[in-house]
Amino acid sequence: MNDLLILAQQETPRIDAMYWLMLASRFLHIFGAIVLVGGIFYLRAVVTPAAAPGDASDIDPLFGGRRAAWAKWVGIATLLLLVTGLWNYVQIIRTHERLDGTYHMLAGIKMLSGLAVFLLAALLAGRSPAAHTIRQRMRLWLNVCLVLGFATVALGSVLRTYPRTPKVDAPVPPQLIAPASPDIAE
Questions:
Q1: Ordered per-residue pLDDT tens for the chain, 186 residues
Q2: Residue 45 to residue 7: CA distance in whole angstroms
């Protein structure tokens, strides 16, 4: 029965510039997560099974020579997730009554796991000596990255459905009231 309460909402969202901005931010946040976690899943499920265990001497053939392209998309997805994630968090704090401490705890855990995914994905796609070292055990780090990525998405889903009370301190905008029409007597 509670599942149907969402369908019986009394109010429709206020469609204004902020609505469109928040919608765009949510879309870009989800898009970034799809690119990053989906790419990591692809690497683990499709690319690394073709590699000899422990062979990271030349990773580019595993990427079909496209490691640099993947590194670019890791950077783009990371930027999108950082910017939109911070924006969304600030807007939720700004527009809702004081949230329970567990909300902030879960948000913090989500942010830390997301940062770990960003770091691991960047290292797995990078050219540095640290990237070369981590790719020596690529399957392990892809598994860790996937677990953290799935946990981050799961925590985001929990936070999205977390009970929140919107602030009601916003002033009511003035309303225009048409003056009464005087009776026109002839």
A1: 555 555 555 566 678 888 899 999 999 999 999 999 999 999 899 888 776 665 555 666 777 778 889 999 999 999 999 999 999 999 998 888 888 889 999 999 999 999 999 999 999 998 889 988 888 888 899 999 999 999 999 999 999 988 888 887 644 555 566 666 666 555
A2: 38
> Is residue 167 situated within a structural domain?
no
Nearest to 42 by CA among 132, 133, 121: 121
Residue 35 located in a structural domain: yes
- Quote the domain boundaries for residue 24: 16-53+74-160
- Considering the entire predicted model, what is its pTM? 0.77
Ramachandran sector of residue 94 (left: φ over 0; alpha: ψ -120 to 50; beta: rest)? alpha
Structurally, the chain folds into a number of domains equal to: 1
Q: Indicate whether 44 belongs to any domain.
A: yes
